[in-house]
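Lecture 7 notes. Example A: sequence first, then its structure tokens.
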Amino acid sequence: MNHPAPAVPAGRTKNRSSARSVLFASSVGNFVEWFDFTLYGYAASAIAATFFPAGNQVVALLGAFAVYGVAFVARPLGAVVFGRIGDRRGRRTALGLSILVMGGATAAIGLLPGWSSVGILAPVLLLVCRLVQGFSAGGEYTGAMTFSVEHAPDHRRAWYLALVGSSTWIGAIGATGVVLLFRSLTGDGFQTGGWRWPFLIGGVIAVAGLLLRLRVDETPVFQAMERTQQPARPFRELLRGHWRTLGILFAYFAVLGLFTHTFLGYLPTYLSEATGFSPSAVLWLTTALNILTIPAGLWLAVLADRHGRRIQIRIGALAAVLLVVPAYLLIGTGNVVAVLGALLVFLFAVSLLSMGALSVLEMYPTQVRFSGMALPYNLAYAVFGGTAPLVSQLLVEGTGSLLAPAFYASVVALLALPLLLRIPETRGSDLRA
């Protein structure tokens, strides 16, 4: 007589091998997303020279940063589409579709003709590709977090989240390494065409990621919900029963997005302007810090699993308010040690704040968890994250002060502080609720 296989407890993967598969599958799309965004930041001057008319470097650079930011406008739409798919059809289905779309758009950027070939059509095509990337990213990061945490053992959720979150920095490191490689291989040719190869590599990585995601199972938490409940209408339920959580999440992701994209998208340019460091020196410096962020984040995750998440969120929120202006002042000295200390302040605040993503994820019931993370995350990143390089550059140009971006970031963090301090402790909560 055949007996049914025992059910896998919610929040647990079947074995160590499947846990590794889940983590790789969750991380690879996030890697591609941040690989691309970091590439764009480091190649901004080459992109400006390729897709915008020659003659005014400042205007071309502002145009390149504007296209960087406009991509985030499509993210809320992606959050609605992929969030609905994730909450109704499954997390794996949504993640498979998002990485397929993302990979195609990333590779396409590396193949687009420039201004000298097609004129005004060049920045238009670049904009279209960035909008498609933004749309696909609307379900990527929050979907990957949901997928990994719902597979995680209850006592190791922060660890799983940190491993997936580290793919953000690994993507940035990978992009930096590829840029350094192609700069060394092509020399001055990087500006005129060598920058295209890293984007093509990103598309290939996305294809590998799709294959990985097709090989892993749906989360046990979602499977358990499917057996006991009808599919929800996630956005209606969010607006009716979880609007306070949506507001807290928007404030949280506004601060996190602003700081993250200031570091990845704007500071490479700012460091060159404020200190006179060469582009290669900036790349090496930020790469070293990105590498350091990974063990720091994993160590904080161990503490969060043992002692809770709330203390880290509060310290990170206060650091975001109090330490940004001093950090920019240190950068302005041009001293290498001082600049390194300033960049560590940014990464310190971002690493501590990152644990808030787990707390708010644990606050949602299963039937709206994907959408409840994706919508405020992408709205906040559209308003504050994607615009961070453009707004920072405009503030510097408009005020003549290199400290203007620091005051902007501090004010945003201060306004969000009361809501960030209200994020509750969620360690030990039941994801099956």
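Example B, a different protein, same format:
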Amino acid sequence: MVQKRYVSIWFRHLLADWQLIRRPELKDVPFVFAAPDHGRNMITAVSLLAHSQGIDVGMKAADAKAICPGLEVIDDKTGRAASLLKAIGEWCIRYSPIVMVDDFSTDGLFMDISGCTHLWGGEREYLKEIVSRLKTKGYTVRLAMADTPGAAWAIARFGTVTPLIPPGDHAASLLPLPPEALRLDEITLNRLRKLGFYRIKSFIGMPRSVLRRRFGEDFLTRLAQALGSADEILRPLQVPEPFQQRLPCLEPIKTRNGIETAITKLLENLCQHLQGEGKGLRSAVLSCYRIDGKVVQVSIGTNAATHSVGHLFKLFQLKIDQIRPALGIELFVLDAAKVDEVAPGQEALWTARPGLNDQSVIRLLDRVAGKVGTGVIHRYVPATRYWPERSVKNCTTATEKPDTEWRLDNPRPTELLSRPEAIEVMALIPDHPPKFFIYKGAKHEVVKADGPERIEREWWMDKGDHRDYYRVEDGQGRRYWLFRSGHYDSGQKYKWFIHGFFA
């Protein structure tokens, strides 16, 4: 079983750092963010320079300006810090598939990094990489790694020795820290201070019944979460796909050959996993995380489930030109967005390969769709409906089985209009086929006709007349499918329609 390890990232001046990135000229100017609260303008975030002059979060903006006359007050917006933290968290997915926003302090992130650190050369190098990258972007951060989210949170904010707590040492690392490190509410913290508990080691050995009676169940829950005796439920920003492969790169990938090599490795691992589960890929998304913070995505789809590495690679090969590596790609993530069951193959001697049962046909369709678009190729099967325009349906897969068989008792046009179009007709006798008809301004003399074939309306769905269909041929040999709606009525101008064309 993999040892669970967590990282806590604390952004000490999140909004201030973000503002300095956008406006570097504020580097030597003390500034704060403020928002109205019950008729008063209250400070919500402070810069490092303003904090050094005695200004802190929760002060009135007017009092802060009295302390620091040169203070610049910037209007804050509701949810700005949360949106910024979420965006940074999504960027951090390159280091771990499971990244969570810290709901308690709203200025930090958690990462479940179990099994990830070896890709960066170990835990210490892993922490150095994250700190270095975030500082390069302009953020002041403190990180810590421990066996539990609670211990990592405590060390990141209150630790003074090392941010890297070895496995199994998280309980000992909590002992010299103040009670604030347990993420307790202010009422509980005041009770602890009144009783002289200024360090966790002062009360950690006391009976649980005594602690519960004095400080409540929430206090014991926070303590248990930090020690690892109780699970802490964290909500990931993105739930990892059950079939997902990740490939971090030691050096940024910039070339087509490098991208193709990365895709091949991802597909080999993914298809091996799928094959073991008896499943095949129907659609996949490749996310390329660039070192400039941008994410480039391409996707593929298949008409039938497959775990053929060669076939899937050819589909991605058609999309590689859409991947712009810029300064380089540092992480590739392949998500199997949709998978289906794969029927086990039969022995080649006994396998017939007609039509869509031939896997080479399926692969050809996939490659054509990759070039011209997935919405261009369609497959239709018969539906159990009477009305001709409702008697076919579009399939979602190339292997979908129809509910009924195609009708062969009467010919049907090779091209069927989605909606019948009105035509002008002249018939010698009202109930006979037309002598000629006018369609889109062109007159067609009818030389041959066959019919009628009566098709009743689906009375359980809507009301209306039946249709009498005729197959007619004009003087140029073109054949059409016409129908008269209902019985002849001299008072209605359009009773005839064209519905399709024969080959």
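Note on Example B: Residues 447 and 475 are 6 Å apart (CA to CA). The chain has a mean pLDDT of 87.
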